[in-house]
Write a structure and sequence with these properties.
Layout: E1 19-21, E2 24-26, H1 30-35, E3 43-45, E4 51-53, E5 70-73, E6 77-80, E7 82-85, E8 117-120, E9 129-133, E10 147-155, E11 163-170, E12 179-183
Antiparallel strand pairs: 1-2, 3-4, 5-6, 7-8, 9-12, 10-11
Length: 186
């Protein structure tokens, strides 16, 4: 898989209250407020004491600085954003080097079920799309069959670090495209 610009692991918005409008989050009970933990950078405390949603700007690449952000986990404590490849982890950094002549691909002979990438942005990020760019050389071709999953950062259980993922794309026939753009909606 060539230089792949994966804008993945979209961590949309946390709406954990009984009432919410487009730009506010309200808690009806003090106990709900005490239980709530906001994702890093999601809220800002203003000088007048009001709490407001943080702003990240527009058209930014959340992978540029994902290693600077972290989120708490139950098992491992504070975990920083980053990239993990189940197969050929040593070349995973090539996914984000902005060089179209480099790419990541699983190790030769790797089990396709274990040839996955996990990109953790380390914080709440609202994404418009995921853009996948594949190689087109004599030696390397685009992945033929694959799926893309995203997570808001919520877990399946309050007592375990098992993240809830949602599939946002899957191939229905062998892929031959050099670029795929996956629109995301909230």
């Amino acid at each position: 898989m060539a230089r792949t610009s994966l804008y993945i692991i979209a961590m949309a918005a946390w709406l954990l209250s009984s009432h919410a409008a487009a730009d506010e989050l309200r808690f009806g009970r003090r106990s709900d407020w005490l239980k709530w933990t906001s994702p890093t950078g999601a809220i800002q405390l203003r000088q007048d004491g009001k709490v407001e949603l943080g702003w990240y700007g527009t058209d930014t690449d959340p992978m540029d600085n994902m290693s600077l952000f972290s989120h708490p986990t139950r098992k491992s404590g504070e975990v920083f954003g980053g990239l993990t490849a189940q197969s050929n982890n040593r070349d995973a950094r090539l996914l984000f080097d902005n060089d179209h002549d480099t790419w990541w691909q699983p190790d030769t002979g790797a089990d396709p079920d274990n040839a996955w990438l996990h990109i953790d942005l380390g914080r709440l990020v609202l994404l418009k799309e995921i853009r996948l760019v594949f190689p087109d050389t004599l030696d390397v071709r685009p992945f033929r069959d694959f799926s893309v999953f995203v997570s808001e950062g919520s877990t399946v259980s309050p007592s375990a670090d098992v993240w809830r993922f949602q599939r946002v794309f899957t191939t229905t026939e062998p892929n031959e495209l050099g670029e795929i753009i996956i629109p995301l909606s909230i």
